[in-house]
């Protein structure tokens, strides 16, 4: 569980920092700048941050499920 917590915390901090940068770019482009390029870069950055966070949570959930399942193939002998 410790490895999963570390990965989840890393994804959380990276996602929040990229989300903050994207929000700042969007707000700057929407209110301050007249250029739509900065606004679109901000929107793309916010979407990228959400994608990174969701993929990180998906990877952590997948690893947890894999650890809890039985692995391997059980062979039943046919000797009677």
Terminal-residue CA separation: 44 Å
- What's the main sheet like? none
Unreliable stretches:
none
Strand fraction: under 5%
Question: How many structural domains does the protein architecture include?
Answer: 1
Please state the CA-atom Rg, rounded to the nearest Å: 22 Å
Helical coverage, percent range: over 70%
The averaged pLDDT comes out at 88
Could you say which structural class the secondary elements and strand pairing correspond to? mainly alpha
Total beta strands: 0
Order of helices and strands: HH
**Count of helical stretches:** 2
> Quick one: overall form?
elongated
Word description of this protein:
The protein has one domain (2-64). It is elongated and about 80 Å long. Helix 1 (2-32) runs antiparallel to helix 2. The chain starts with a helix and ends in a 12-residue tail after the last helix. It is mainly α and 80 residues long. The protein is 80% helix and 0% strand. The longest helix has 33 residues, at 36-68.
Present the secondary structure layout:
Layout: H1 2-32, H2 36-68
List the keywords.
single chain, 80 residues, mainly alpha
In short:
It is built from 2 helices and no strands. It is mostly helical and 80 residues long. It has one domain (2-64).
């Amino acid at each position: 569980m410790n490895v999963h917590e570390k990965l989840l915390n890393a994804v959380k901090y990276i996602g929040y920092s990229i989300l903050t940068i994207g929000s700042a770019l969007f707000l700057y482009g929407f209110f301050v700048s007249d250029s739509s390029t900065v606004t679109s870069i901000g929107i793309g950055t916010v979407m990228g941050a959400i994608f990174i966070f969701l993929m990180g949570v998906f990877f952590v959930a997948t690893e947890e499920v894999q650890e809890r399942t039985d692995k391997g193939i059980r062979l039943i002998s046919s000797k009677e």
